[in-house]
Amino acid sequence: MKGGFSYGSTDEHGYEAVENRLHIHDWHATILHLLGLNHEKLTYRHAGRDFRLTDVKGQVAKEILA
């Protein structure tokens, strides 16, 4: 990741993100990408169904990568 980089902004109280929000699935996809793993292929089977950590929504946030 880029050193000293600030992504997005919060409200005046620092309580909630208001600009460039990342969902937790996007954050997980980005971390897995940095570890060299493809989050779309990383699945596990539970109760006869394939699941993945990033569900079907996660996308790598390329704008925060160096």
Description:
This protein is α+β, with helices and mostly antiparallel strands. Helix content is 17%, strand content 20%. The chain contains 1 helix and 4 strands; from the N terminus they run ββαββ. A two-stranded antiparallel sheet has the order 1-2. A two-stranded antiparallel ribbon has the order 3-4. A hairpin with a 2-residue loop joins strand 3 and strand 4. The chain is flat, with a radius of gyration of 14 Å. The termini are close together.
Largest sheet, described in full?
2 strands, antiparallel
Instruction: State mean pLDDT (0 to 100 scale).
Output: 88
Query: How big a fraction of the residues is strand?
Result: 15-25%
Unreliable stretches? none
* Distance between the ends: 5 Å
- SSE class: alpha+beta
Number of strands: 4
If you compute it from the alpha carbons, what radius of gyration comes out, rounded to the nearest whole angstrom? Answer: 14 Å
Helix content: 10-25%
> What count of helical segments does DSSP give?
1
